[in-house]
Each structure stands twice: as C-alpha cells, then as structure tokens.
C-alpha cells in the first residue's frame, strides 16, 4: 500500500531549521529575503507561544463507503525560545489505549503539519542548502523585462532527504510559482505549483498541487511499472484576534481518478502569547 504523505513537501516542499553555514550567492539570498517579506508568517506579529487543538479525519478508502474515520485529536504546541523554534504534537486524552506502534505511526504522520500551522521562513527552510540563481548571475529584483527568476538549492549534506530544489519565482508579485524537487527516496522527483491569497497584504498559500510518479510492485515484489499521482491541498484561514492561522487543511492524493488518501485537519481552541 502506498503510504506517501505530502506535508513534508507542501510546507513549500521544505523541511529543516538550522543555523546557516551553507554557501549562498548574494543575489539568491536577496531574493529569498524579499520573498519572506512578502509572505505571511504568524510568528512575525510578535507571537512567542501558541497552543491549539488539531482534529484529524481520513477517508476510509478501503471500504469505498465515503465515510471519514476519526483519528485521535492532538494538541499542537509552538514556542519561540530566543530565536529557536519548537513544534510538538501530543495525543489528547489517554494515549495508553493506543499501542506504541500505533502512537509512533500517528505521530510520524502528523509531525510535519506543524510547519503548516506556524511556517518556517524560506531562509530557515533553506539554511542547509547552497543557494544560487539558475543563470550565472542573479538579476536585479527591479530589473525590467525579466519577469521570472530561477533559484537552485542543493543540499550540503547527505543527511537531507531532499537533495535539491528548483524554484521558479514571479518577480512582479514576489512569490514562488513552482518548485521542482529531487529526493533520495521515492517519489524521486516532485513538481509543485501554488495558488495564493492575501492575508493583511501578504501572501499565504491557498492551494498547492503536486505531481509525481512511483513504481508499483505485484504480489511477487516484481515491478509493474510507474504510476502517476496527483496531490492537492487546500488551506483555509481564520483570524484569531491579532493573527491569521490556517484552521482547515484538506489533502487529497489520487492515482488517476482514484482517491488513494484523503486527510482533513481542523485547528481550534487556539491559545497564544505575545
């Protein structure tokens, strides 16, 4: 059974937060910094702590009944401790009623969604990647006639699951249009596109779409060829007093017209500290 989860890709298909020791072409960093200025980050409103309840349902695709099955609720906690951010999920209620194997499975699936609630900045996400422009020299941000810029980001360590990113940037609106990434494990290549909306004058992802292929094995573990998959995630936002947060995420993975996975998340009971 395919067990592929795209949040690790969708939070801009990016994961990672470390101090920046990577080489960077100055113009490439200038572009990422400008993108960060144009994107909405809840933590940049002065937020220091956040706690919220996350409910999680997934479609029972095996029965073809159209029924959503309820997973346990989680408490999501985020904290900024002197510039070091932590994100954590804990099962609500008595976690002992779940086996250790089941708890590990649930926690491994939900942990990356923390970056969709409180996103990392692009400079944080790309901190362990060498950054350069696709052309030999980055064009000036205000240069007329060049509407797109392309950045290449290459992992500095073999420990990174994603080895490289290729970004296509709309310079007029200063937002990322497309990402193409390569990974060490399947799916080896993923193509992502994005649709945005404005929150307090800044960009936030309203929808992301990804395409990739994966090999399938028969009962004798023999390859039956590559199959094409499409993933679509939609994000709905709600203003909780001073800040906007994503409060619902719908994520559908299809192979052709067949739904392989459908996850639905809702964020409620938000408590925050500034």
Structure described in brief:
The chain is mainly beta and 274 residues long. The protein has helices spanning 7-10, 26-38, 100-110, 114-117, 122-125; strands at residues 49-59, 68-81, 84-91, 129-133, 148-155, 162-170, 175-183, 189-199, 202-217, 223-240, 243-255, 258-273. The protein is globular, with a radius of gyration of 19 Å.
Describe the structure.
The chain is mainly beta and 274 residues long. The chain has one domain (7-25, 32-130, 195-273). Helices cover 13% and strands 50% of the residues. It has 5 helices and 12 strands. A hairpin with a 2-residue loop joins strand 10 (223-240) and strand 11.
- Work out the number of β strands: 12
What is the overall number of helices?
5
Strand content: over 45%
Helical fraction equals 10-25%
Strand arrangement, major sheet: 3-2-1-12-11-10-9-8-7-6-5-4
Q: How would you sum up the global shape?
A: globular
Mean pLDDT: 85
